[in-house]
Amino acid sequence: MPEAGHYGYKKTDGICDGVCGEPVSKAALTMSRLKCALRGFDLRALMALLIGVPILILMIYAHGQKVTYFLRPIWESPPKPFKTIPHYYHENVTMENLCKLHGWKVRDTPRRVFDAVLFSNELDILEIRWNELSPYVSEFVLLESNSTFTGMKKPLHFKENRHRFGFAESRLTYGMIGGRFVKGENPFVEESYQRVALDQLIKIAKIEDDDLLIMSDVDEIPSGHTIDLLRWCNDIPDILHLQLRNYLYSFEFFLDDKSWRASIHRYRSGKTRYAHFRQTDELLADSGWHCSFCFRYISDFAFKMQAYSHVDRIRFKYFLNPDRIQDVICRGADLFDMLPEEYTFQEIIAKLGPIPSTYSAVHLPSYLLKNVERFRYLLPGNCRRESG
Asked: Which domains does the chain have, with CATH numbers?
């Protein structure tokens, strides 16, 4: 029994016994109290938590896009499928028979065709495009800005190299629009602003009702025979999307045939508006080529990565490293280290990894094959690029 008198009792445990009743330094007392506070914690679990959480955060930051893209089939349904129209063509079949094969009638005279594009810096691809379409186009319409979609200032590349396109000069409506350079703005706002300006330039080019208007980016190249068919046939749809063969970096890396944004319209005053999104359910099969990021110079790859509307895909500065870009091109890998943008797990898994090389150069734009020495970098087996 304790002795009579004032009695004070303080609860202690084994960890803290060493500091009770003895003079100790303030630091030792603090450490002892910390030990008391951590009593019952598993040290290994604590260390795993302290190391694991930062690693998990870093992995989410570095690869979060891959996780969300891979899980896309769970939270997003695929778009409504197109109604694909079979495309018949052979150089030895008459236009009357070609129209008949499509369920259309041949016209007495062909429609006028207007080819309208927004231009950034794709000089080689523009030259190939315009030469492919030149026999069938009545008016080329081109608009360029001194601003990229992301608000970067850029040279007027077409204006400085206009001499390369003398064959189209008599049929060219050219326009230049100044950028707005709004900091922090969504790039799609500037893109929309420029497309509206292009819509006005098309009117300046004196397009009329029932003329054909091609709406596509410079690197979305309709085949000449496709445009010839549509200008000669009656009863074609008012709006028709064009299915293009999808290539990346050059005609060596064939991705798929799912490029559909290019379209052709029978112009209607007050109704037709220049756009680059889905506008109908009808798609004409095998109608040309989409050669994305098909540049001669490494510097052009880096420029486009920073200039177009998906600049947010540059998650790390080293993505712009010239040696890395060259390595990615030759492997057929993705410049932004992204997973395929597909809507089913089967399609995502099927497209994982680099694009396999193709060694076929059959049915490519004729101007490209006639000028192989100038454009060899676009053909299979020529992935090395100049620095620029």
From this structure: 83-296 (3.90.550)
